[in-house]
Write a structure and sequence with these properties.
heterodimer, A: Rossmann fold, Alpha-Beta Plaits, 2 domains, 40% helix, elongated, B: 76% helix
């Protein structure tokens, strides 16, 4: 029991500043063993910076990042030997075959001889690249490269795997395989995964917990249900409704319903803001008055909605951050 | 309580396990191996070998045709490397001029191609010291340079030996080996310089261009600039100026030229390869008074150019040191 709930990644008051700009701002986060954690946020939110600090590749301005109780800035080699990192746009030496690339990584991790070759064979099979293994990586598709990236990460048999935007540019079929693989890495091998992404739908399917990260701050963290609950508590319920027939009399009647605060009309759909869950009440009312319900959906519940709502909230809190973000975007585009 | 102890024990075994996994390796061996394989397999290596090979044998052809003029010398074998004939430059001056291109070609994309290909951040995420990456690249490049230079130098000597039948003396062999070692250091300087550019330039093309322009500057323009500055400082327009300024003018020009690795190298190897050269500085009539005309021994020749050698080695280390520091301080982010 104690083993299961052990914290493997601990970030406390982690801060990184680039000049006047704060990329990561006082981040506190713990990730337990065997967990799949999704770090969600828009581009430029500081996800990659956080990951680089976790790997000891960037020194934090303040606070600390610890993996297995070891400070990442001071013991980078130990941390990197147990942490696999799949960067966004993972690159391989195009002139070498997949197998040669893996062999090189294995050697860097101190493997050699028979042990190394066996491991390469096993991993190539595991990620389904058996046929392409001896082809030059230059001929690989994006999805194949991603799978080779996973094999590459597994070369060192890591306890923790960090993936930066793993779903970027992958076709749906590749995506399904990738998510499947992620799930297996977690459930079968018991590895801890930290996945950073801005694509919510995919992450939603595999993550145990998610953290929403905007402008260097973690504005929400928890399971999907917890986040949903959290939104409900401080926000209103939003109901999509379309009925037949759709007339003006109905609008007036809906307003009189208990709990309804506001109604907007989008095409043939009403967007009803309410204080509480009024679905049952509305259904009964409409049924009694001879209306047919075509569509009734309570927003929230899916990550997209949660995400959007949290962003709205973050945006309302201060607009200064927003202009800072714009500046960063401009700088980014200059860099490119 | 029992659970706590159990947990502790588990944690203990965990650290033992992870401790075992950290091998006593910095990854340098694997990186060096990989870089060397890359170089030797690349087309670039083949092209360089053909370039140096063809110029080497062309210069040998010129040298052999010029041999009758040098037949009075006691060091005939050395003139295979130093003599020029049929308006073909000598092997020595060919290498001085073209050698840098070997170093530049091997190093100009060392770091920035890794960065552009996205392999750098995968590499630094491995449990290796970050400096192993750049040291491995430099060592592998130097090894390739050594292979090319020693192969070519010895091949030129061997072909010369076969075609002319001149036997080298032991001292000549030593002089040739020292010459080739000098050459490796000289070219390693250019390798270090191009790695420096590859650390700081985002695109491989930019760093190639920057290092090539520096090469052309040192090989061609440095001597022009040196004489312009020397003439400005110590004008030699009229007779008065010639009488009073010529020593200062010449010394200043010489010292300015010695900033250039091209000049340093040329000065050093021409002294090593020609025992007749007795001084690299200006010699006054006063100093020549009473001097016995003769050859310098090998030790004395080396002593004469020792400052050049250390200067060249220092330049190489400075260039490499700068790229090392630059690389270690750089952010790893890909964009």
């Amino acid at each position: 029991m104690a083993e299961e709930n052990r914290n493997v990644i601990e970030l406390s008051h982690l801060t990184k500043k680039y000049g006047a700009k704060t990329a990561v701002d006082d981040l506190n986060l713990t990730i337990r063993k065997g967990e799949v954690f999704g770090l969600l946020g828009p581009n430029g939110a500081g996800k990659t910076t956080t990951i680089l600090m976790l790997l000891g590749l960037t020194e934090p301005t303040g606070g600390s990042a610890q993996i297995e109780g070891m400070d990442c800035a001071h013991h980078p080699l130990e941390v990197k030997s147990m942490t696999g990192y799949l960067p966004d746009n993972v690159g391989f030496y195009a002139d070498m075959t997949g197998r040669q690339n893996l062999r090189f990584t294995g050697r860097l991790n101190g493997l050699s001889g028979k042990e190394l070759e066996e491991k390469i064979d096993r991993l190539i099979e595991q990620v389904g690249l058996t046929e392409a293994a001896d082809r030059r990586v230059g001929t690989y598709s994006k999805g194949m490269r991603q799978r080779l990236g996973i094999a590459d990460v597994l070369m060192k048999d890591p306890e923790i795997i960090i993936m930066d935007e793993p779903t970027l540019g992958i076709d749906p079929e590749g995506m399904r395989e990738l998510l499947d693989m992620i799930r297996r890495l977690s459930t079968e091998d018991g590895r801890t995964l930290l996945i950073s992404s801005h694509q919510l739908h995919q992450i939603q399917q595999v993550c145990d917990r998610v953290g929403i990260f905007v402008d260097g701050r973690l504005i929400a963290c928890g399971t999907l249900e917890e986040l949903e609950e959290h939104i409900r508590r401080d926000g209103a319920y939003l109901l999509e409704l379309s009925v037949q027939p759709c007339d003006d009399r109905l609008l007036g009647m809906l307003y009189q319903q208990e709990g309804v605060e506001d109604i907007k009309k989008e095409g043939n759909t009403f967007l009803i803001t309410a204080k509480n869950d009024i679905r049952a009440q509305i259904t009964r009312f409409l049924g009694e008055n001879g209306y047919t319900i075509l569509h009734l959906h309570q927003r929230g519940g899916d990550l997209d909605e949660i995400y959007r709502r949290y962003f709205e909230k973050a945006g309302q809190h201060d607009e200064r951050n927003d202009s800072g973000k714009k500046k960063k975007r401009i700088r980014n585009s200059e860099n490119r | 309580m029992k659970e706590m102890i159990l947990e502790k024990r588990k944690n203990g075994s965990e650290t033992v396990k992870t401790g075992r996994r950290i091998r006593k390796t910095t990854g340098l061996g694997a990186l060096y191996h990989k870089e060397l394989t890359d170089h030797l397999k690349s087309k670039r290596f083949l092209i360089l070998l053909i370039l140096i090979g063809s110029t080497g044998f062309a210069s040998l052809y010129g040298a052999i045709s010029a041999l009758p003029d040098a037949s009075g010398s006691n060091y005939l074998f050395l003139s295979l490397y130093t003599a020029s004939g049929n308006s073909i430059p000598s092997f020595m001056s060919f290498i001085a001029l073209l050698g840098p291109i070997i170093g530049l070609a091997l190093g100009f994309d060392a770091i920035n191609s890794e960065r552009a290909g996205g392999t750098l951040n995968r590499l630094v995420a491995q449990p290796i010291y970050r400096d192993s990456i750049i040291i491995g690249k430099f060592l592998a490049g130097t090894a390739v340079i050594a292979v090319i230079i020693y192969t070519m130098g010895i091949a030129v000597g061997a072909v010369g030996l076969l075609s002319t039948g001149i036997k080298p003396t032991g001292e000549e062999v030593w002089r040739i080996l020292i010459f080739l070692t000098f050459t490796v250091i000289y070219i390693a300087f250019w390798l270090a310089l191009s790695i420096l550019f590859s650390v700081f330039c985002r695109h491989a093309a930019t760093s190639a261009l920057a290092s090539i322009s520096l090469w052309i500057f040192f090989a061609i323009f440095m001597s022009l600039i040196a004489s312009i500055i020397a003439n400005a400082a110590y004008p030699m327009q009229d007779e008065y100026g010639i009488i009073f300024n010529s020593l200062h003018n010449y010394t200043l020009k010489l010292n300015l030229n010695r900033i250039s690795p091209y000049y340093l190298y040329s000065e050093a190897v021409s002294t090593i390869m020609d025992p007749m050269v007795r001084s690299v500085n200006i010699v006054t009539v006063d100093q020549l008074n009473g001097a016995v005309n003769g050859y310098l021994s090998l030790g004395q020749s080396v002593l004469l150019v020792w400052p050049d050698l250390t200067g060249l080695a220092a330049l190489m280390l400075i260039a490499f040191g700068c790229s090392y520091v630059g690389f270690m301080r750089q952010e790893i982010r890909s964009n």
